[in-house]
Design brief:
Layout: E1 2-3, E2 8-11, E3 14-17, H1 20-31, H2 39-46, H3 54-68, E4 78-81, E5 85-88, H4 104-129, E6 133-135, E7 142-147, E8 154-159, E9 165-171, E10 177-184, E11 190-193, E12 199-204, E13 207-213, E14 220-228, E15 232-241, E16 244-251, E17 258-263, E18 269-271, E19 278-284, E20 287-294, E21 297-304, E22 309-316, E23 320-325, E24 331-336, E25 340-345, E26 351-355, E27 360-366, E28 371-387, E29 393-395, E30 403-408, E31 414-419, E32 426-431, E33 434-437, E34 447-452, E35 458-463, E36 466-471, E37 476-481, E38 487-492, E39 498-503, E40 508-515, E41 521-528, E42 533-536, E43 539-543, E44 550-553, E45 558-562, E46 569-574, E47 578-583, E48 592-596, E49 602-606, E50 614-618, E51 623-640, H5 642-649
Antiparallel strand pairs: 1-2, 2-3, 4-5, 6-51, 7-8, 8-9, 9-10, 11-12, 12-13, 13-14, 15-16, 16-17, 17-18, 19-20, 20-21, 21-22, 23-24, 24-25, 25-26, 27-28, 28-29, 28-51, 30-31, 31-32, 32-33, 34-35, 35-36, 36-37, 38-39, 39-40, 40-41, 42-43, 43-44, 44-45, 46-47, 47-48, 48-49, 50-51
Helix pairs in contact: 1-3, 2-3
DNA-binding region: 1-90
InterPro entries: 6-blade_b-propeller_TolB-like, OmpR/PhoB-type_DNA-bd, Sig_transdc_resp-reg_C-effctor, WD40/YVTN_repeat-like_dom_sf, WH-like_DNA-bd_sf
Protein name: OmpR/PhoB-type domain-containing protein
């Protein structure tokens, strides 16, 4: 008996729960039982919009085969056709299957009914996602882009996947062509069209350059550098009019970006806004909408250049990454946090209209006929296991390739990590060469900040904006605190009577102690804004004022561990034996140092040349888990905005 609603398959009185994606693969095979289904087709149907490999589908098939072997009837439930794909080998007629001896007659009509429901759900999901269309399907390294004023041509900077070099490309949806190479580029590269559509303003590294094109827009006829400042960094550059541009500019000695107007002829700069800390802006005639950060509060403000005054201000507690004007001046569309789109009216309450849990959305722009353009960044990460001070590491023996946030347990015998291989984020455990899934979330969640209890029996981590605890002994979990924005769990105290979390709202950081009995809270530490904090085994380590004092809080008392700690240190992590950190010095940025909690000695424990990628966690035995991107894609998409706005307009 197959029950898609509960993801359960029953054999001979035994019920087996499977992962949602395994069930989805089975249902797709049943629905297409009259033909062979390729792996690529399964990936497209079950993991639409998610970057996965063929091994992901093959693993689901392997799980199903192992499960169906319990029937012990000698029948081939899933047939394999080499280099072609798979086909269900048993028709979904439960009267003929030697499983679930009881309830045969009921199961006979339940399965077709469930299949109809599933098919309607698949149809509805396809209908919901059919608005999205990839632009330039073969381009997977789009660094940035800009729509021509006629909205029919796209200019974009393409990054060479094998180097850090880039090139400018132009084209409609069918025939892009390269028009200029621009050498080394950083992730902050930007490009924008002039109002007359004949020039491109390109911001690469510390230079802003104008490329003049011919009338056919297929050849660059002139190139001029309009701004080059070694002591400044830029984040965004857009044309204001034919003779001026707006840029966000940051001096190295200052911590925030300010908005400036740049005269493209005289190259003179003038400050536009009194607000400091402008992270993004969008132009609409003489109106400037901009994002202003004030501590951990984010404002979307609108400033009238003609009236020289602010006319709107919307407040968010989430990070606002990008904004764009709607064509009918009804307000703005905003990219909030990592994966959400909001409508922000000039007056009224903001409303979420879309969520992209599977990818990081960047650079939203509005095209013709209310088409929304955006970049989607998706990465596949792989975990590697090695020993500190040894040059090489080995890949973990698993088909789970999208792996993140690995943390060793207190004894260094196993580690927990997050994987999105099955389409939904789950916490897994790696121990003794075996991978085991712990959580069973049925919807996509953002999981981060894994912490072990000192006895290794519990995990504390972030689920979206909630703090969640999972028991390895009971194989169950529950939410401890809900809607704790801008927070990070720091683990349990040694007796598991409390747990701690770091609250970064406002101008001061605070560490709270929360009772597991009644969730009552008590503030135990007040720290300066952006204080570096790590934790392990019920202890909290942080850098004090001036960043050259290392403290440990044991739940009761603050202990000064070192009054001459390096002032250019960045804390990495901690375990029962040491605190680990980087030094921000040329030539040694990726060396990981340890401060031994017993001897107080400092030494390099993971040399920078001994690994690639990122060091995620170090065990007491100095075993190291590394994380490395094995594939990163940045693709340009568009979708109709009208379906997203429909609920908003009613």
């Amino acid at each position: 008996m197959v029950d898609p609603n509960s993801d359960q398959i029953s054999f001979a009185g035994q019920t087996n729960k499977v992962e949602p994606k395994v069930m989805a693969v089975l249902l797709y095979l049943i629905d297409n039982r009259c033909r062979v289904v390729s792996v690529e087709e399964i990936l497209s149907a079950v993991w639409s919009g998610v970057v996965v490999t063929p091994q992901t589908a093959q693993r689901c098939i392997s799980v199903l085969r192992k499960l169906f072997s319990q029937a012990d009837d000698g029948r081939d439930y899933i047939k394999t056709y080499v280099k072609k794909g798979y086909q269900i080998g048993v028709a979904p007629d439960l009267e003929q299957e030697k499983i679930a001896a009881r309830s045969r007659s009921t199961a006979y009509w339940i399965l077709p009914l469930l299949l109809v429901i599933v098919l309607l759900t698949v149809f509805w999901n396809k209908k919901q996602t059919s608005y999205e269309q990839v632009i330039f399907p073969h381009e997977s390294q789009v660094a940035t882009y800009a729509l021509h004023p006629n909205k029919a041509i796209v200019a974009y900077i393409k990054r060479d996947p094998f180097s850090t070099n880039g090139a400018i490309w132009l084209g409609d949806t069918n025939n892009p062509r390269e028009i200029a190479k621009i050498g080394h580029i950083l992730p902050t590269a930007q490009i924008d069209w002039s109002p007359d559509g004949q020039s491109l303003l390109v911001m690469v590294n510390k230079k802003i350059t104008i490329f003049k094109l011919n009338d056919r827009l297929d050849t660059i006829v002139d190139k001029s550098i309009v701004l080059s400042e070694a002591d400044y960094r830029y984040r965004q550059a857009d044309y204001l009019d034919e003779n001026h541009a707006l840029i966000t500019r940051l001096p190295r000695s200052h911590g925030v970006y300010d908005l400036y107007k740049l005269n493209l002829q005289t190259k003179q700069l003038s400050r536009v806004l009194a607000d400091s800390g402008v992270s993004a802006f969008a132009l609409n005639k003489q109106l400037i909408a901009y994002v202003h950060r004030n501590g951990e509060i984010w404002h979307v403000k609108v400033f009238d250049l003609t009236l020289h005054k602010e006319i709107a201000n919307q407040v968010f507690k989430q990070v606002i990454r990008d904004i764009e004007w709607l064509s009918d001046d009804m307000g703005l569309i905003a990219h909030v946090a990592q994966n959400e789109l909001y409508i922000i009216p000039l007056a009224g309450k903001p409303q979420r209209i879309a969520n992209y849990p599977e990818a990081y959305v960047e650079e939203i722009e509005l095209g013709q006929r209310q088409q929304l353009y955006y970049l989607k960044k998706s990465s596949i990460k792989k975990l590697y296991l090695g020993q500190a001070n040894v040059c090489c590491s080995s890949v973990l023996p698993t088909e789970n390739i999208a792996q993140y946030h690995a943390v060793w347990d207190p004894l260094g015998k196993s580690f927990a990590y997050v994987t999105t291989t099955q389409g939904t984020s789950q916490v897994w455990l790696y121990s003794g060469g075996i991978h085991r899934q712990l959580t069973q979330f049925t919807q996509q969640q953002k999981l981060a900040n894994l912490n072990w209890s000192s006895d290794g029996h519990w995990l504390l981590f972030k689920v979206n904006d909630d703090i969640y605890a999972y028991s390895l002994l009971l194989s169950t979990g529950n939410t401890l605190l809900s809607d704790v924005y801008f927070s990070k769990p720091l683990g349990f105290n040694k007796n598991k009577e409390f747990f701690y979390y770091l609250d970064t709202n406002g101008y001061q950081d605070r560490v709270w102690k929360v009772s597991l009995a009644d969730t009552s809270k008590q503030k135990v530490l007040t720290l300066a804004d952006d204080t570096q904090v790590v934790s392990s085994n019920g202890n909290i380590f942080y850098l004090g004022k001036g960043k050259n004092q290392l403290y440990m809080f044991d739940g009761q008392t603050n202990h000064l561990l070192d009054s001459e700690f390096p002032d250019d240190a960045t804390l990495h992590s901690a375990n029962a034996q040491a605190v680990f950190y980087f030094l921000n010095r040329p030539g040694s940025m990726k060396n990981i140092w340890q401060w031994d909690l017993t001897t107080r000695e400092q030494k390099i424990v993971v040399p920078r040349l001994s690994y690639s990628g990122d060091v995620l966690s170090i065990s007491p035995q100095q075993k190291v888990v590394y994380g490395q991107d094995i594939e990163t894609k940045r693709k340009l998409y568009k979708r109709q905005l009208a379906p997203l706005l429909a609920p908003f307009n009613r």
